[in-house]
Specification:
- With about 90 residues, this protein is α+β, with helices and mostly antiparallel strands.
- About 30% of the residues lie in helices and about 25% in strands.
- β2 and β3 form a beta hairpin.
């Protein structure tokens, strides 16, 4: 778990440095982002969208507060996350 937390911290720093507003993340990073009690401080300040069914393998992270995002639950499963994104 410590390795994936370190990798997630590095990913969140890269997202911040590059100014990425919406990130689609797949793989072992999602385990740490999905569980708030195990996530780092860097990814807690962002909005994360994942499936609530089964063990999720993908997540969408929105870093900009001016972007409205809404999870479309009916079209989301453990392998895909559908998010409606509206920039205000």
């Amino acid at each position: 778990m410590q390795q994936s937390r370190t990798a997630t911290d590095n990913l969140m720093k890269l997202i911040q440095k590059k100014g990425i507003y919406v990130a689609f993340i797949r793989g072992f990073y999602t385990r740490v982002i999905y569980r708030p009690q195990q996530s780092s401080r860097n990814c807690r300040k962002y909005r994360n969208f994942t499936s609530s069914v089964g063990r999720c393998r993908i997540t969408t992270v929105v870093t900009n507060k001016q972007i409205d995002a809404l999870l479309i639950q009916e079209a989301t499963d453990k392998d895909s996350v559908v998010v409606e994104i509206i920039r205000t």
